[in-house]
Design brief:
This protein is α+β, with helices and mostly antiparallel strands and 803 residues long. It is 25% helix and 24% strand. The protein has 18 helices and 28 strands. The strands form six sheets. The chain has a seven-stranded mixed beta sheet with strand order 4-6-2-13-10-11-12, sandwiched between helices. Helix 13 (504-512) runs parallel beside helix 14 (540-567). It is globular. The two termini are 40 Å apart. The model is unreliable at 1-31 and 797-803 (pLDDT under 50).
Length: 803
């Protein structure tokens, strides 16, 4: 293990992956890593999708349902089609009449609503016109008559036998064979280990609670933007997507054209946070451009960005029950989690399984029973917002652990110390853990936050631990050295602003004795790079980084072989450094990379390497007692982390000020400290919004009431606390390059839990509804109302939530 303390804005090259030291080290002070896309973004020269233009460009606009559940009785586009400057109007009648489902779980939706609209953002029609104003006028001219249908807005009521159905024809939908569902239950996943019921009955102490989380939005600053242009029977779609290859596949599927007739290009992406991690409107705009016979560009308004894209963080009801021994060790754990998946499933089928794994957490528990259900409602469809389900579940379970600690007379650190996993322990599906830093992260967070010291009135410290998966999957890269000695990486990976793709140059440079500045990158074009899963699941460095290292290694072999012939030396006597190849011990016997590349090219060859990455297999586990399995039966190369938060609470108003956050992370091996520190810092600030201010408010009509940046409260720089980032390096034998593990998603997971536990320690009361707004905190302090629904848990419905 290596503990490293990272101040902000420091960086160095990737480490060599050698065995980790057991001692703490000083902050790294190597030169900063220069991002290739930095100058263009900083100077305003970067062109985002909304900046693109084309000859004859038309402006597109969508007509959305504007209501949560209704049958379309009449749809008349006659007047809109006849308006001056209107080039095309497209409805469901103008595209193939087929259902689809992203990621292949359930085919439960159409491109354009045909008979029924199921949430307010359902697309009914699209218009292309000469100006944005004419497009808006044409949308207003479309006549739609609706028959309102009963609303389904509560996940528990949705599961009742008498509840109206969100999808009346759901039984006939094509589905993944592993999917377990029934009526409004869209998907179900369970974990069963041992006999939790018996262990609960015989435990020395049982703690039962309920927690409720509101939906949250990812809110990237750049809204969804697309431009589609046809060339014969082939379409190019410029899109602000995080998953261009998924988008390509789904455009081909929904428009019933060959996949090689579709090209998806991403220029620069102005953030996503998972909100652009799906196929959204690429096919809509492609169909509109085909009908208009000219390029069409669509840029969502800020309100549309809130109400339309089906990627919001899940609303949840989380019931938890823990059986404890007198010494504070956990003997059994049960949980029921209801995820509000909204009107369509998308990837929520797999995220129910992620939620169930996250509920167990990085704890040593011999008996487990978790039941996670994704439930259809007439709300905005949920999905893979950054660390999907992680922040909500961790917030609930880590509060629950503090309650358990209090009930057995232990402080929060000691309780976790007795129950966190170490290497050789068994996970919830009996995977055996590698050596990990879960316990060390707790100890380091406690040390740095000053646990045990006296605090000012109204201040308190809270802790939260957690874990998250890495996501092995297919990826690929080409690496080449051109005749001028400059390198190029061609990748299918997607850069969403984190710098993960930009940092691939570090890995290639280290392998070839070059500097990151010696490389250029071609990326975000499905016609250029090999397939990649996109910017999701913290997988870019984990998978594409491995592909780049392997491709660069192939180039290295060719380089050394050619240079050995040129220098009349053996390969074993050569070294790659400073942009050339030299004989060890004879610095004058040296050739530049340009000389070697030119010679190889003249001889009819190329310094080119390719790799598909060879994703490692997931860990062995026993999920035989589980249902609804979709690939997350075990967490591959899991990241472990702990955060400590110091807060100040104004008891008279419920206002919370987060003063300090210590974030300690076991990410295997830190390859780019500057970039990784930025990810942790940004994740913590984003998570403060989840904790304290961000939550979607729905009216009784199923429509959002705070769909604007004025009403949806994001944290700003003024809200950012002091953030102390630290690393524990335990390289994984089954990880990414140099034993690295995922970095992008973990930092957002434990913050809300740490802040919640600090609020409880400062006030003596607990807030069981997320976000923990000043009103909810004030009500908990003054009225004893904790914000969670009373009662109704599956374990003991007669008990209050805090018993």
């Amino acid at each position: 293990m290596t503990l490293t303390r990272e101040p902000r804005n420091t960086g160095d090259a990737a480490s060599d992956g050698a065995g980790a030291s057991e001692s703490a080290v000083e902050p790294r002070t190597a030169p900063r890593f220069p991002r290739a896309d930095g100058p263009a973004k900083a100077t305003g020269q970067a062109r985002y999708t909304a900046d693109l233009a084309a000859t004859g460009l038309a402006h597109g606009r969508f007509l959305t349902a504007g209501r949560a559940h209704a049958r379309i009785v009449r749809l008349d586009t006659t007047r809109a089609r006849s308006m001056p400057g209107v080039y095309a109007v497209v409805t469901g009648a103008d595209v193939p009449h087929r259902r689809y489902g992203s990621f292949g779980f359930v085919e439960d939706r159409y491109l354009f609503a045909n008979d029924v609209v199921r949430f307010e953002g359902d697309v009914v029609a699209a218009v292309a016109a000469a100006t944005p104003e004419r497009a808006a006028a044409a949308v207003d001219a479309i006549e739609v008559e609706y028959e309102d249908l009963p609303l389904v807005l509560d996940v528990e009521q949705a599961l009742q036998p008498e509840s109206p159905l969100v999808h009346e024809e759901w039984a006939s939908y094509a589905k993944d064979p592993e999917l377990v569902n029934d009526r409004n239950e869209a998907a179900r996943s369970t974990i069963v280990k041992g006999d939790a019921s018996t262990a609960i009955e015989t435990a020395d102490l049982v703690v039962r609670e309920r927690y409720v989380a509101d939906m949250i939005h990812p809110v990237p600053i750049e809204p969804h933007a697309l431009l589609a242009e046809w060339n014969g029977d082939r379409v190019t779609v410029y899109s602000s997507t995080q998953v261009p290859y998924v988008a390509r596949q789904m455009v081909a599927e929904t428009l019933e054209i060959p996949e090689h007739h579709v090209r998806i290009v991403v220029t620069h992406l102005g953030g996503g946070f998972g909100g652009k991690c799906d196929f959204h409107y690429e096919a809509h705009v492609a169909a509109l451009a085909r009908a208009a016979r000219r390029p069409v560009r669509v840029v969502l308004s800020r309100r549309d960005e809130f109400t339309m894209p089906d990627k919001v963080g899940h609303g949840m009801v989380i019931d938890v029950e823990t059986g404890l021994a007198k010494d504070g060790t956990i003997v059994a754990f049960r949980s029921r989690i209801l995820l509000d998946c909204g009107a369509y499933v998308s990837d929520t089928a797999s995220l129910a399984q992620v939620a169930s794994m996250e509920a167990v957490g990085p704890y040593r528990i011999p008996a487990v029973e978790v039941d996670a259900r994704a439930v259809y409602t007439n709300r905005t469809p949920s999905g893979s917002v950054r660390a999907p389900t992680g922040p909500q579940v961790c917030w609930a379970v880590e509060q629950h652990h503090d309650v358990c600690a209090q009930r057995v007379g232990l402080d929060p650190v000691e309780f976790r110390r007795r129950n966190l996993v170490v290497g050789g322990d068994e996970g919830p599906t009996r995977q055996i853990f590698e050596p990990n830093g879960a316990l060390e992260a707790l100890e380091e967070a406690a040390r740095r936050v000053g646990w045990g010291r006296a605090l000012a009135d109204g201040e308190a410290i809270g802790f939260a631990s957690g874990w998250w998966f890495s996501m092995p999957q297919a990826s690929g890269a080409f690496v080449r050295i051109d005749a001028d000695g400059h390198g190029r990486i061609v990748t299918g990976a997607q850069e969403n602003g984190t710098g993960a793709v930009m940092a691939l140059t570090m890995l290639a440079a280290e392998e070839l004795g070059m500097t990151p500045d010696d490389f250029s990158i071609t990326y975000q074009d499905t016609d250029a790079g090999p397939w990649d899963g996109g910017s999701s699941g913290s997988q870019t460095t984990f998978n594409n980084g491995r592909a780049v290292v392997e491709a660069a290694s192939a180039v290295r072999e060719k380089l050394l072989s050619a240079a050995a012939e040129m220098l009349e030396a053996s390969v074993g006597d050569l070294e790659l450094r400073d942009g050339g190849v030299a004989v060890v011990g004879s610095p004058d016997r040296r050739v530049s990379l340009a000389q070697v590349a030119s010679k190889v090219q003249a001889d009819g060859g190329l310094l080119l390497g390719t790799s598909s990455g060879n994703a490692p297999a997931g860990p062995d586990c026993d999920a035989s007692g589980c249902i609804g399995r979709h690939g997350f039966e075990a967490f591959a190369a899991p990241t472990f982390f702990c955060q400590a938060a110091r807060v100040r609470v104004d008891r008279s108003t419920g206002v919370v000020r987060v003063l300090d956050v210590v974030a300690i992370n076991d990410v295997g091996r830190v390859l780019n400290p500057q970039g990784a520190t930025g990810q942790i810092t940004g994740g913590v600030v984003q998570a403060l919004g989840t904790a304290l201010t961000e939550g979607t408010i729905y009216g009784a009509d199923g429509r959002q009431r705070n769909a604007s940046l004025l009403d949806y409260k994001l944290p700003t720089s003024a809200d950012a606390p002091r953030i102390d980032v630290g690393w524990i390096e335990r390289p994984s034998a089954h990880g990414g390059p140099r034993g690295s593990k995922g970095v992008g998603e973990p930092p957002i997971i434990p913050t809300a839990g740490a802040v919640a536990n600090a609020i409880a320690a400062a006030t003596g009361t607990r807030v069981r509804r997320l976000p923990m707004t000043p009103e909810r905190i004030w009500r908990a302090i003054t009225l004893g109302a904790d914000g969670a629904d009373e009662p109704g848990g599956p374990f003991d419905p007669e008990r209050r939530a805090d018993q």
